[in-house]
Amino acid sequence: MKKIVVLLLLLLSIKGNSQFKKSMFGQDPIINLENFQKQRVYYGYFLGFNSFDFKFDYKTVGPDILVKKTTGFNVGIVGDLKLQEYINLRFEPGLYYTKRDLYFPESAEIDTPTDVLREVNSTYIHFPLLLKFSSLRTGNIRPYLVGGVSATLNLSSNSKAIDDNYEQKFRVKPWTTNYEVGFGIDIFSEYFIFSPSIRGVFGIGDELIRDNDVNSPWTGDIQSLKTRAVLINFTFH
Fold first, then answer.
1. pLDDT by residue (tens digit) across 123-142?
2. Distance CA 132, CA 39 (A)
């Protein structure tokens, strides 16, 4: 009986996989949601992952600040406005959570584990405005490129804190601006569009709030600090 069940499941799997390939890539595929993207406006939501980093520029040559990155998560909504057959304007506000550990080089003043390490937990509300450039649709597949600008509100910036790194408080500005570029693919199923994408985020301005002491061993040698991030989103329309 077990062998029969396994055999039936195997046959169903092979058949389903064959039908999927035919519907997506075959010479005469079943066209799903043929008129969906002809709508002027449509909406969706996304879930995903992120990896945020910091880019440091220094005033003098010396040991770098090391950044240990972790994988965070994203969730948000999508609004899409059709401008032209292959061009769409997208607004994708979302909530992004991430964590970075900063390891400062040891010195005369930075000589204990609590001085070396700064844990930077960040909760961002991210507001990207993007242009989506789609290719010709092939069956139920449509690749695209995306790019634009964004503004980010950091709810964990510590920007209003009086304490600084001497009290183990790392501070950055609450608002930042960025530019973004990436690519993705629209996969048309029978009931919805699944759209995985990957995007790079590049901060434009200096985000660092320096310590009260201009000669601080933590911030005194930093010329600028800018966000860098990779976003992987799975969007459903």
1. 999 999 999 999 988 888 99
2. 15
